[in-house]
Amino acid sequence: MWPGPVAAFAMKILVANLGSTSLKYRLFEFRENDHVELHRGGTERVTDYVGAIDACLRDLHETGSIRHERDLDAVAFKTILARDRSGCAFVDDELLAAMEACNRIAPAHNPPYVKGIRIFTHRMPKTPMVALFETAFYQWLPEAACRYAVPESWYALGVRRFGYHGASHKFIAERSADLLQRPDIGDRVRSLYDRPQPAPTDSGRPELRVISCHLGGSSSVTGLRNGIPIGNSFGTSPQSGLPQNNRSGDLDPFALLHAMREQSLSVDDAERLLSRESGLRALSGGDNDLRDIRQKALAGDGKAQTAIDVFVSQIRHWIGAFFFELDGIDALVFTAGIGENHPWLREQVCAGLERLGLLIDPIANHTAMATEALVSAPESRVQIRVIPTNEELVVAREARRMLQALNTANPI
């Protein structure tokens, strides 16, 4: 843990979003109860994280966002998974070791984060590093939403449903509550990690029931009751749930064993095939970008159309599961790169659901691109909304709380 206090009034926090081949970053400044995004940037097709991180810091200097690394009160990370750890924490060697222990569960995510955090720490040894784990938002899931029907010894190893995309779904929980005129729930979710468990909801007001669809290169669906998740389509790993860009999504475990035996696959072979050569890439015949797949499908490519059909079917499957569990919903929200930018996909997901109260407005839907929008028809009983996510803000805000708590314990 970082031992010293930091400036209490104004804080600059850099959020680094590390992918297997990308680095995206946003710089926030917090003052009192307000914040501003000072700068954002990123690098795609990263092969050298040292160079990418140096370019990030150079960009912050050249744009005048910071004058020196000392201007940053913290660097915060949207980390994925660590053994026996969750929530928000200062990064130290013990935490990095706990993350490395889960590298085989999250092979596309944990290794880049561990590597990137070490590079940032080396470049800025006096700057606090803060991790907000994606599993944190799901720490209050009911046990029935977490357990697999496997031996107890497997459960002890961590074979359970964790839930991911926590920062994104948390932002949607907050923002959807505000838009549906339930600021009591929005404020409650914003302060969620300040409390050991969710505060009780005012029983005199109706429940707010929302389904959040984070659809991108990595996709998941979460059901929200009064801003608190009741489940997530991911399982033990981010490899599960919906078909991902090149990851399989849900798969019968005996299908895996069958394929391994029939093709004489090693564990490493199976891991590579499931995490790099499956998902939309496998279904479409080689493409993992939905834009390319859509164009091929429109040109009559059958495999591309199958990839879209499977993806849409699985989104609807999970929406249906949470719709039933929530006993109906007040809003269906689309977010992330695909959810925000592909009106045709939203239309297909909502097609034929009029009896469930979902009726999309074709004109509103097709004009909504990467901006907040109500895209349901006036007569729809359920609101259908597009809400751009802001995972980085959620991470920055939680990092700020950690620093404020440190100031309280160690005043300047």
Entry summary:
With 412 residues, the chain is α/β, with parallel strands linked by helices.
How far is the first residue's CA from the last residue's CA?
A: 17 Å
Averaged pLDDT: 91
The CATH topology name of the largest domain reads Nucleotidyltransferase, domain 5
Instruction: Assess the beta-strand content as a share of residues.
Output: 15-25%
Tell me how many strands there are. Answer: 12
SSE topology:
Layout (H helix, E strand, L loop, with lengths): L9 E9 L4 E9 L2 E10 L5 H14 L11 E4 L10 E3 L2 H8 L9 H14 L5 E4 L19 H5 L9 H14 L3 H8 L18 E6 L5 E6 L2 E5 L20 H11 L3 H10 L2 H6 L5 H9 L3 H25 L4 E5 H6 L1 H8 L11 H6 L5 E2 L8 E4 L4 H19 L3
Parallel strand pairs: 1-4, 4-6, 7-10, 10-12
Antiparallel strand pairs: 1-2, 2-3, 5-6, 7-8, 8-9, 11-12
Helix pairs in contact: 5-6, 5-15, 10-11, 11-13
Describe this entry's structure for a reader.
With 412 residues, this protein is α/β, with parallel strands linked by helices. It folds into two domains: 10-132, Nucleotidyltransferase, domain 5, CATH 3.30.420; 166-391, 2-Layer Sandwich (Nucleotidyltransferase, domain 5). The chain is 40% helix and 16% strand. It is built from 15 helices and twelve strands. The protein has helices at residues 49-62, 93-100, 110-123, 152-156, 166-179, 183-190, 253-263, 267-276, 279-284, 290-298, 302-326, 336-341, 343-350, 362-367, 391-409; strands at 10-18, 23-31, 34-43, 74-77, 88-90, 129-132, 209-214, 220-225, 228-232, 331-335, 373-374, 383-386. Strand 7 (209-214) and strand 8 form a beta hairpin. The radius of gyration is 21 Å and the shape is globular.
